[in-house]
């Protein structure tokens, strides 16, 4: 399971294997903070459905190296096209969202609240990665392009969902907490106020308890599922 930290002192991820580190090649999800506050909305890893292609690891096929490419190889065309097709669709969604907001046609996003720099950055990187995905390279380079293309598409999805679903709720919190959306990656936090706010809008939240003797983000006693209604922390899910 992957879960990002939010309101934490360092940019860390809880990696598969239940430990903290900064060298996860897939890099999703990441830190939830004021600059990347949409990342708790990233879809959870899945093997089925429309998001499955965003969590498949690239495997080196039997005939990777090709004489025609001087020993280099390329991702199988049908595999690359699946990821490219998904990327093109999410780009269209983002472009429409930005255009509607800038024209004043979006019901919840005004022109002044649209993070233009972030949207342009995601679109530019994703378009560049999609163009490179089918070009010949070493397996290591292709695997890096594949993982980065997946990551940018996850960033784009979380950007759209945060602006259209979760930010309006955070600005005007519901009176009763929404059901927790377990299709989202959610976040880990040491901040009780942040945990309460995110739990109220349906984002999965976990509480990080630091080792008092060694108050370092990498010295974690336990992480618990947060439950705002009882103001407590339920069973250990990671240790």
Describe it:
With 239 residues, the protein is an alpha/beta fold. It folds into two domains: 1-36 and 180-239, no CATH class; 47-171, no CATH class. 36% of the residues lie in helices and 14% in strands. The protein has four helices and seven strands. The protein has helices spanning 77-102, 116-132, 139-171, 192-200; strands at residues 3-6, 13-15, 19-21, 187-189, 205-210, 220-227, 232-238. A seven-stranded mixed sheet has the order 3-2-1-4-5-6-7, with helices on one face. A hairpin with a 3-residue loop joins strand 2 (13-15) and strand 3 (19-21). The longest helix has 33 residues, at 139-171. It is globular and about 65 Å long. The chain starts with a strand and ends with a strand. The model is unreliable at 9-31, 214-224 and 229-239 (pLDDT under 50).
Task: Tell me the strand percentage band.
Answer: 5-15%
Distance between the termini: 13 Å
Number of helices, counting only DSSP H or I runs of 4 residues or more: 4
Biggest pleated-sheet summary: 7 strands, mixed
Average pLDDT value?
74
Strand ordering within the main sheet: 3-2-1-4-5-6-7
C-alpha geometry:
globular
Q: What structural class results from the helix and strand content?
A: alpha/beta
């Amino acid at each position: 399971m992957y879960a990002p930290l939010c309101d934490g002192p360092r940019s860390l991820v809880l990696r598969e294997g239940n430990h903290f580190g900064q060298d996860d090649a897939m890099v999703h999800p990441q830190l939830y903070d004021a600059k990347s506050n949409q990342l708790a909305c990233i879809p959870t890893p899945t093997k089925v459905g429309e998001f499955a292609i965003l969590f498949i690891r690239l495997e080196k096929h039997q005939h990777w190296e090709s004489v025609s490419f001087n020993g280099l190889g390329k991702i199988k065309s049908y595999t690359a096209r699946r990821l490219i097709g998904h990327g093109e669709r999410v780009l269209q969604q983002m472009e429409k969202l930005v255009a509607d907001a800038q024209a004043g046609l979006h019901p919840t996003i005004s022109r002044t609240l649209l993070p233009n720099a972030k949207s342009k950055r995601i679109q530019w990187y994703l378009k560049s990665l999609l163009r490179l995905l089918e070009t010949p390279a070493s397996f290591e380079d292709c695997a890096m392009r594949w993982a980065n293309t997946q990551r940018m598409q996850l960033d784009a999805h979380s950007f759209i969902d945060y602006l259209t679903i979760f930010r309006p709720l955070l600005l005007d919190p519901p009176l009763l907490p929404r059901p927790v959306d377990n299709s989202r990656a959610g976040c880990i936090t040491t901040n009780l106020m942040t945990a309460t706010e995110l739990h109220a809008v349906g984002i999965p939240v976990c509480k990080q308890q630091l080792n008092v003797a060694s108050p370092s983000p990498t010295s974690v006693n336990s992480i618990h599922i947060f439950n705002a209604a009882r103001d407590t922390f339920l069973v250990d899910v990671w240790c």
